[in-house]
Amino acid sequence: MGGLTLADYFRQQAFAEAVSNRPEVPQDTSVIFLWLPGGPPHMETYDMKPQAPSDYRGVFSSIPTTVPGLDVCDLLPMHAKVAHKFNIIRSIAHNFSDHGGGHKRLMTGRDPKTPVDTVNDSPAVGSIVAKTFEHRDVGIPNYVCGADNGRQGVDVFAMGSAYLGSAYTPFFVVGDPTPKEFKIPNLAPTIEATGRLDDRTRLLNNFDQYRRQADASGLMSSIDKFNERAMGLLTSDAARRAFDLTLESDETRDRYGRHVWGQRALMARRLVEAGCKFVTMVLENPYQSGLPFLKQGTYNWDSHAVNCHMFDDLAARLPIYDRTISAIIEDLYERGLDKKVLLVVTGEFGRTPRISNVVGSQTGVMQPGRDHWPQAMSVLLSGGGMRTGQVIGSTNAKGEHPKDHPLTPNDLWATVYRHLGIDYDRSFPDYRGRPMPILPYGSPIDELTV
């Protein structure tokens, strides 16, 4: 039965398409959204404060890059070589310090009704994109997300589609794509399932023929469509090729890193190259692909002292991250995708500027960490036809809050929507039928215009 599970994914989308008649936006553009759940520390990555007091600045040093004034952590030397191909925004901030509230605030561009949990009351940005381009069919889903096994639910990272309906949630790619034997289960039916595919198709056609005879509204034809599209993906060489990392050279795979993060980023590049509109890849747990779990490390980017020894964890985490991000930036430019594809890298917030020391729950010893801090965070953007090599905004001397050019997540998403050709003033009806604009406020960031 697993051979036809893609039909489940398309079922709700087919219903939605049957009652919608909006044309697609004529734009050949895409977004890769690399999500760092837990909240990466801005003062150990892109907003170093070497002159701050010792209990603020941490133990790592800053290094210069190819862009004067854009220094990064010394654990990011590959970033330093390609800094002229990306921008860093240092002045985005919001007011939701819980993971749930922060996820929802970042993912939706709206203040959530509750400051906790990750069940959306507004659609995530990826769902807005999927809704806008619902009539676009290039043989692969328009909205894809890669996540660890057990972390693929839409409510794990506030990726819910809320009042748009479940038709507009992502198609999930689950697990570590590093091994050569990795397959997308829904696109790789077993030999036995393939042998029964024709019989199952004929059976479905017989049922559908009866149902079509009873259909007076045209809705049944959309039900036929989800089966047709599921079958299309199962038998589509284009879809299988888009997800198949074995078609990449060993050199390219090594360049991204033989690690779940690097291979997810490489898959994202393949997907947008094949026409996918919005790809989210979750870079959460680095202790995979043969990297043993560090006792003083932690699963995601949530570097409380009780969770981990932050500096030891970052010493293991940042080199993998460095390779992944620098590789996809270089690859997008080398393949001529830098105007078509906008790369966005962020978590839900930054970390407290002042370091705390607490006994670790796993180590039982005193260790350093940082807590949640939505008042300051750093976001990386590359491609999208933007001017690059810029630092946009700043925080004060201790990294506590924006000093220059304060921005919100809505300004980031307005920039993303503009790249995709989406009118973010457009409205969709909520559960009560009230028109809800895609963004309640926010403007594209001027420095990122061509």
Structural commentary:
Helix 1 runs antiparallel to helix 8 and helix 9 (237-243) packs antiparallel against helix 11 (260-274). The N and C termini lie far apart (49 Å). The protein is built from 13 helices and 18 strands. The protein has helices at residues 6-18, 54-57, 77-81, 99-108, 125-132, 191-195, 197-213, 219-235, 237-243, 250-256, 260-274, 310-334, 409-420; strands at 30-35, 62-63, 72-73, 86-92, 143-147, 171-174, 278-282, 341-346, 350-351, 356-359, 366-369, 372-373, 377-383, 390-392, 394-395, 402-404, 427-429, 435-437. The longest helix has 25 residues, at 310-334. The protein has an eight-stranded mixed beta sheet with strand order 6-5-7-1-8-13-4-14, with helices on both faces. The protein has a two-stranded antiparallel ribbon with strand order 2-3. A two-stranded antiparallel ribbon has the order 9-12. The protein is 32% helix and 16% strand. It is globular, with a radius of gyration of 22 Å. The chain has one domain (2-448): Alkaline Phosphatase, subunit A, CATH 3.40.720. With 450 residues, it is an alpha/beta fold. A hairpin with an 8-residue loop joins strand 2 and strand 3.
Layout of SSEs?
Elements: H1 6-18, E1 30-35, H2 54-57, E2 62-63, E3 72-73, H3 77-81, E4 86-92, H4 99-108, H5 125-132, E5 143-147, E6 171-174, H6 191-195, H7 197-213, H8 219-235, H9 237-243, H10 250-256, H11 260-274, E7 278-282, H12 310-334, E8 341-346, E9 350-351, E10 356-359, E11 366-369, E12 372-373, E13 377-383, E14 390-392, E15 394-395, E16 402-404, H13 409-420, E17 427-429, E18 435-437
Parallel strand pairs: 1-7, 1-8, 4-14, 5-6, 5-7
Antiparallel strand pairs: 2-3, 4-13, 8-13, 9-12, 10-11, 15-16, 17-18
Helix pairs in contact: 1-8, 9-11, 11-12
